[in-house]
Each structure stands twice: as structure tokens, then as C-alpha cells.
């Protein structure tokens, strides 16, 4: 009995070893018969996998700050003020994004507006320099916006799409059927479109972070003796208005030349008729 039990145990051990050697978990066999459609349609989202390019957590990543502002000041010499602003801008490696000039002859005010971009690291120094260029600061407003979370989100989505693109390219190199090739290429086109969109957003954010924006307005103020209340200003304005009225009336009369021509013809005809009638009456009286 004892020998029988030992023989039974030995047989079970040998059977277990044979099954272990012949076991298959499905990876190798399935890989041989796996179609591209099965892989494409059933693969898990890339966001669930750990990616090497994924940014670090927000606690350790450098903050991304967008700084922008507006400043307006009065100056006695607008040409010198503009030169000082542009020289300071060149010194810090900035540039003028847009420039506008307004001339108001009625208020006698000449105004410049410069929309400039300055390297973020040199923004404060540039602002201090141009502030001294004005004779009187009218207004100043500086704003900072933290876009760290948005930057991380866009970067993560971009890296995930790039990883997904890489996986599709690997599948495309192994595809054997034309249907599989076409399906993978369609998915690649969609992924690449999303990559371009995310890359554009990231480039825009990076440019705003690297270069702060500042809207600079500087102008000349009219003198107190010519502020619209003095006698000289009102006299000049009255003369100017009179000339404008005279010119308008003159050209208005010229515009009505057909009326004046018709009136002149009528007067001429009437005078001729009256003259003839008087001559006829005088002739009758003389006879």
C-alpha cells in the first residue's frame, strides 16, 4: 500500500512537470496570428501608460508666468520719448509688435502707441527705464497670469499623441493587409492633426511666457494758454470757422450755376420785351 501511494505521487509530479513545460500564456501564439485590426481597435489609451516625456509634477516644475501691462505718460518732446523707448527696447532684445500714431488738430495732441514685446527676465528693468522717459505718468497697470497648469496639460497631451503616433508607425511596418494599412494611415492622419494643434498651442504659450507684452502710450499735452478758453484760441477758431463757411457758400453757389444761368436768360428776355414795348409806345405817341 505504501509503495502504491509513493508511485501515485511520483506519477502526479511527472505529469505536473510536463504540463508546466507545455503551458502557453497566449502571447507567442497570438502574436503569430494577430491582425492589425485587432491591435488598432483594442489597444488601451496611451494616457494610461507611463511616458518618459511626460512633464514632472507641478510641485517640482518651474512656474510658467505670463506678464503683461499698460503704461501711459505725458512728455514735452514726443520724438525724444519715442527714441528713448525704442533704444531701451533694442538694448534688452525686445521688438515692436505694432505702432500707431494719432494727430488731433482740434485738441492739438500728438499721440504714439507702441505695442512691444520684451524678454520676461528683463521686463522690470525695461519698465523702470521707460518710466523715467515721461514727464508725468498718467497710468500704469501690470498683470501676471500663472499658466503652469495649462502648460503641463498641453505638453502632456502632445507627448501622449507623439507616443501614440510612434505605436501606429510600428504597427504600420508590420501590417500585411491593405485594409490594415489604410486604417492605420487614417488613424495616423488624425493623430498628426492633433499633434500639430497641440504643438501650436504650446508654441503660443511659450512665446507669451518668454516675451512679456507692454502697451506704451505717450503724448504731448496742449499748453494752458491754448486750452480752448483763451481769447486768442477763440479768435483763431472764429476766423477759421468763418473762412470755412465762406468757402462752403462759394462752392455752393457754383454748384447752382444752371439756376443762375436760367435766371439771367429770363431777365434778359424780359428786359428786351419791355424795351421793345416802350419803343413801340413812344413811336405811336410821336405819330
Residue-averaged pLDDT, rounded? 76
The CA-CA distance between the termini, in Å, is 187 Å
Helix content: 55-70%
The largest sheet is:
5 strands, mixed
Would you write up a description of this structure?
The chain is elongated and about 135 Å long. 60% of the residues lie in helices and 18% in strands. It folds into two domains: 1-222, no CATH class; 234-286. It starts with a helix and ends with a helix. The protein has a five-stranded mixed beta sheet with strand order 2-3-5-1-4. The chain contains nine helices and five strands, in the order H-H-H-E-H-E-E-H-E-H-H-E-H-H. The chain has helices spanning 2-22, 27-33, 36-42, 78-91, 123-131, 148-174, 178-210, 231-255, 257-286; strands at residues 65-74, 95-104, 109-119, 136-146, 211-219. The chain has 287 residues and is of the alpha+beta class. It comes from Mucilaginibacter defluvii. Pfam families: DUF4349 (PF14257). Keywords: Membrane, Transmembrane, Transmembrane helix. Residues 63-271 form the DUF4349 domain. The chain crosses the membrane at residues 245-270.
Amino acid at each position: 500500500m505504501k509503495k502504491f501511494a509513493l508511485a501515485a505521487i511520483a506519477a502526479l509530479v511527472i505529469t505536473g512537470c510536463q504540463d508546466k513545460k507545455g503551458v502557453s500564456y497566449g502571447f507567442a501564439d497570438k502574436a503569430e496570428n494577430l491582425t492589425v485590426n485587432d491591435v488598432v481597435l483594442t489597444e488601451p489609451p496611451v494616457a494610461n501608460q507611463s511616458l518618459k516625456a511626460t512633464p514632472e509634477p507641478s510641485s517640482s516644475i518651474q512656474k510658467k508666468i505670463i506678464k503683461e501691462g499698460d503704461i501711459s505718460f505725458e512728455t514735452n518732446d514726443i520724438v525724444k520719448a519715442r527714441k528713448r523707448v525704442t533704444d531701451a527696447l533694442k538694448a534688452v532684445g525686445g521688438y515692436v509688435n505694432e505702432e500707431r500714431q494719432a494727430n488731433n488738430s482740434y485738441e492739438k495732441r500728438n499721440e504714439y502707441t507702441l505695442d512691444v514685446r520684451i524678454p520676461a527676465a528683463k521686463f522690470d528693468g525695461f519698465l523702470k527705464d521707460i518710466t523715467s522717459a515721461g514727464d508725468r505718468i498718467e497710468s500704469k497697470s501690470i498683470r501676471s497670469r500663472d499658466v503652469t497648469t495649462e502648460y503641463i496639460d498641453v505638453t502632456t497631451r502632445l507627448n501622449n499623441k507623439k507616443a501614440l503616433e510612434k505605436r501606429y508607425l510600428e504597427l504600420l511596418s508590420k501590417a500585411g493587409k491593405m485594409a490594415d494599412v489604410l486604417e492605420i494611415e487614417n488613424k495616423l492622419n488624425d493623430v498628426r492633426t492633433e499633434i500639430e494643434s497641440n504643438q501650436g498651442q504650446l508654441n503660443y504659450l511659450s512665446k507669451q511666457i518668454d516675451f512679456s507684452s507692454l502697451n506704451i502710450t505717450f503724448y504731448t499735452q496742449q499748453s494752458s494758454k491754448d486750452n480752448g478758453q483763451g481769447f486768442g484760441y477763440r479768435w483763431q477758431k472764429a476766423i477759421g470757422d468763418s473762412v470755412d463757411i465762406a468757402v462752403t457758400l462759394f462752392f455752393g453757389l457754383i454748384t447752382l450755376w444752371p439756376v443762375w444761368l436760367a435766371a439771367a436768360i429770363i431777365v434778359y428776355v424780359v428786359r428786351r420785351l419791355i424795351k421793345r414795348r416802350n419803343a413801340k409806345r413812344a413811336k405811336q405817341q410821336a405819330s
